[in-house]
UniProtKB/TrEMBL annotation:
GO term, biological process aspect, one: immune response
This protein's GO CC annotations: extracellular space
One family name in Pfam for this protein: IL8
InterPro entries: Chemokine_b/g/d, Chemokine_CXC, Chemokine_IL8-like_dom, CXC_Chemokine_domain, Interleukin_8-like_sf
Organism: Calidris pygmaea
Transmembrane segments: none
UniProt protein name: Chemokine interleukin-8-like domain-containing protein
The family this protein is said to belong to: Belongs to the intercrine alpha (chemokine CxC) family.
SUPFAM superfamilies documented for this protein: Interleukin 8-like chemokines
Presence of the UniProt keyword Secreted in the record: yes
CDD domains named among the record's database cross-references: Chemokine_CXC (cd00273)
């Protein structure tokens, strides 16, 4: 699911999910430039995984998809990232 252009981080006081729908189809990691994990919170009841392709498309990924879990685990281990901090591949 592609995010609409200009749909960045929620504005102050704006409490809503950035990803109304997410895809679980495999996207080859070599096509991804950035993966962002946004933990659940007052803005959204579910965690969100937002990927940006090297072509600049922003795609919401299903955090429950096995391939997405694998990518997140590798990123967290490799870059010693903490959820909520942006990590690039």
């Amino acid at each position: 699911y592609l995010l609409k252009q200009g749909s960045g981080a929620p504005l102050a006081g704006e409490l809503r999910c950035r990803c109304p729908r997410a895809v679980s189809q495999v996207i080859p990691p070599r096509l991804l430039a950035r993966v962002e994990l946004v933990a659940e919170g007052p803005h959204c009841a579910v965690p969100e995984v937002i990927a940006t392709t090297k072509q600049g498309q922003t795609i919401c990924l299903s955090p429950s998809a096995p391939w997405v879990k694998l990518i997140l685990t590798r990123i967290l281990k490799r870059y010693h990232c903490v959820p909520l901090i942006h990590c690039s591949l």
